[in-house]
Structure formats: structure tokens, C-alpha cells
Amino acid sequence: MPASADFVRSRSLWLDELSDLAERPALPGDATADVVVVGAGLTGLWAAYHLAVARPHARITVLEREVVGYGASGRNGGWAGSGIAGNPRVYAKAAGWDRTLAAARLTEAAIDEIGQVVRDEKVECDFVKGGTLVVAANAPQWRRLAQGFESATRLGTVEPGSSLLAPEEVRSMVDVPRVAGGLYTPHCARIQPARLVRGLAEACERRGVVIHEHTSALSVERGIVVTDRGRVRAPQVLRATEAWSGQVAGARASYLPLTSMMIATEPLPPEVWDDLGWPDGLTVRDRRHLFFYAQRTPDGRIAMGGRGAPYRLRAPLAEFGQRDQGVWDRLEHTLREYFPQVGDARITHRWGGVLAVPRDWSMSVHYDPRTGLGAAGGYSGHGVVAAYLAGRGLADLAADRRSDFTEAPWVGHRSRRWEPEPLRYLAANAIVRVLNGADAYEDSTNRRARRTRILAPVLPPG
Ligand SMILES: Cc1cc2nc3c(=O)[nH]c(=O)nc-3n(C[C@H](O)[C@H](O)[C@H](O)COP(=O)(O)OP(=O)(O)OC[C@H]3O[C@@H](n4cnc5c(N)ncnc54)[C@H](O)[C@@H]3O)c2cc1C
Asked: Which mutation among 82, 215, 242 tests ligand 1's pocket best, with the greatest number of atoms within 8 A of CB?
């Protein structure tokens, strides 16, 4: 049964804020198109948008199982941040450092390109490029931050204009009580995610793209997508189903679906913002292993997210798994610990969503011109900008155009498959337990936890 509008709204603060959740009709029966895109999140819609720009006469159909932005694209933290969604060393091994470094720069440029489309298409999604402040709250966090910065400087992946900060410099940006140091990078924009993805869908439609909601693709094959509403035949089929990819017959991706959770406060009064000093548009995170990420919303809330929800063996994608009181409580504790100025402000929204993690935590884009089949995903939770790059890459590949996006090292990248269940389940929950334990140890002792080393082969880069 399709999700009701109230149910969709309850999936995130961002969806709840939409004034209009008008639904689009489902696929009415068998159909044909020039290109069919499966999944109306940011990846699928950026692909459709750029294809519609490149081939204005192409008949492009997008199929979405629920509604536009129902997945991670309508629930995320609203960070359009730079940086490769994956491990630069993994890409450099196959594609070389020159292409990998060019890709790092591409992620920075992509933020401005998103901003440009947002302006051109009049997508009102609160886009403000205010940068990111990373706060290291204790000595081990500071050590990780400084080491990461030095290693990125050596490799050349360090973001231009970013710098390490002394504690007083951090406090001059946001007044946090415990700080050992920090880092600032200008390469991040704050957005309202649901408004971005739904505004993009409207921009696609203005260019002739047809979007069908409540239409579930059961299989994708050469020249045909079989859905629960009919078959769509098209010479080009692009799949953008991220965490759900394992459910679509014919999809080759092997992802670990991980849940990220968020909370949002009520709008905070101006005095609290004056005390915090937190400028509009600045995104803030810490350097715990299970780090938090936060934004100041235009109406003065703090929206904060983090990981750590248990992976459910039998239903890793179920909606109930995306609601975890333990993680919400941890986030609320972190919120009041880092930003005591919020006092007893109410938490008005709690939600979660799933993201897709490949075995090497590195994204990929594929397109085979012989079969017309393409797919992209595996952003490991760093997907707002990555979805732009991947969608643009898919569009250029499908339009047979060589570009920086088709030359990026994630094009053609294959991650090895995750171990079968229950090993995947055991690995996912061990990661959360070990990282949580390591953070608690570092918070209480101010000493570096070494227990994370045992999980190094399955941990994210950095
Ligand atoms: C809580 C949370 C916070 C996050 N915060 C950030 C952040 O601040 N910054 C950042 O860069 N990234 C963040 N991410 C990750 C980012 O949101 C995702 O990587 C990105 O949105 C992925 O976009 P997508 O279009 O590939 O996937 P999705 O947005 O998940 O879209 C996939 C779509 O496919 C549809 N679908 C699935 N199966 C089918 C089918 N069989 N037939 C038809 N349709 C189907 C789904 O309903 C869904 O709408 C966060 C993720 C979560 C969950």
C-alpha cells in the first residue's frame, strides 16, 4: 500500500515543512520511453535533469516506488559538502592520483553548480554556502582531525581554503564549552533537503520529464523495466535506487543498508543564537567516530544527525528500523552537551533514513553503451553532492558525451561484495558497538581508544 501524505510528512522535519505534497499519478500501464530512470531521489533526478538539458526532445520517464524524496534525499542532514564519497586511495589505485585529485576538485565545484541550478530553476531550498566547522572536543578527536588534515595535505586532497583552528578560533565561530581545536572548510552549503529534491523534480517536469510515483520497479533489464503497474520499454535504463538496490532483480550492487538518525529542536529564540554565535549557513560536526552533523535551519532550529542504529538482520530496510530511541537519546545528549545554550528547548522532530554502504565505502557509476543499462550509488552517507556528480555522470554517459563527470574515478569502479548474512549483520553491529565504546572511552579519559583497529578492514576511510 502506498504511504499516505501524513506518513510521508512524519519521515522528516524537511518533508513535514512542505506546504505542498501533491502526489503524481502512478504508471497507468505498459509504456515506452527513450530513457527510463528508476528512483526519484537526487541521483535519479539529477540524471533526468541533465539528460533533459542535453537531449531536450528525449522522452524521459522516472519511476518512484513511493513519492519524490521519500528516501535519504528527503531526510538527510542538508549538508551539500565537498570531498570524495569514498576512499581516495581506493580510486587512485585503479585510476591514478591525477584523476583522483581532479575528482576531489570536482566535488568542490559541484556545490557551486548545484547553487547555480537552484538559482536558475528557482528552487527555494534555503541554499547558503556557509562552510563547515569541525569541532574536536578532546585530545583524541583533535589528533584525528590534525592527522587527517596533514595526510590530506600530503595527498593533495585537502580542500583549498580549509585550515586547522585553535580552540579560541573555534569558539569565535560557535561557542562550544569543550574544545581542543577545530577545522574550517568553506566547501559546504546548507540546504533544506526535501525542498531541493522536490524542486528538482519540478524543474525536470518543466523540461518534459514524466514522473510516476507509487510505481515499484520489480526488475531492470536491457530495454525494459518491469513494475507492479506495467512494463516500460526504453533503450536506456538508469537505476538510482541506493539502499533498496538489493530488492530490484537485475541490480548487481552489494550494499550494507545503514541507518542515520536525526533530531530537530523547536525554533530557538534570537538570544540563544547570539550566545552561540553560530552564523546562518554554517554546518557543524565533531570528530567522534560516531560523529554528529548539525545545521542551523532558517527558522532557527538545530537539526542534528548521527549514526549508530542497530542493523536488523531480517528487515534492514524496514521503516521501524529507522526509529531508534537509543540513538535519538544519544543525539539529544550530544546536542545539550555541545550547545548548552539551547537549555531545555523541546525536540520537535525525530527521524531516520537509510543509506547504502559498499564494501569499500566507495561510490560507483556504471553505464554500458552496448546494453543501455546504467546505475549509480553507494555514497556511504555522503551523497548530496555525490548524487549530483553521479547523476550528471550518468546523463553524460547516456548522452554519449565525454566530460569531467564521465572521467571521474568512480565511473566503472566496482566494490567487492559484502560477506553474506549473517556476517554482514555481525559486521554492521560490531562496527557500531566498537565505535560507540571508543567514543565513550575517549570522552571519559581524554585518551585515544585503540580498539577501533581490530575493525580497520571494514571501517570507513579517515
Ligand atoms: C538521516 C540521513 C542524513 C544524511 N545526511 C547527509 C548529509 O547531510 N549530506 C550528505 O551528503 N549526505 C547525507 N546523507 C546521504 C544522502 O542523503 C544520500 O546519499 C542521497 O540522498 C542518496 O540519494 P539517492 O537518490 O541515490 O537515494 P535516495 O534518496 O534514497 O533515493 C532512492 C529512491 O529510489 C526509490 N526506490 C527504491 N526502490 C525502488 C524501486 N524498486 N522502484 C522505484 N523506486 C524505488 C526510493 O523510494 C527512493 O525515493 C544522509 C542520509 C540519511 C539517511
From this structure: 242
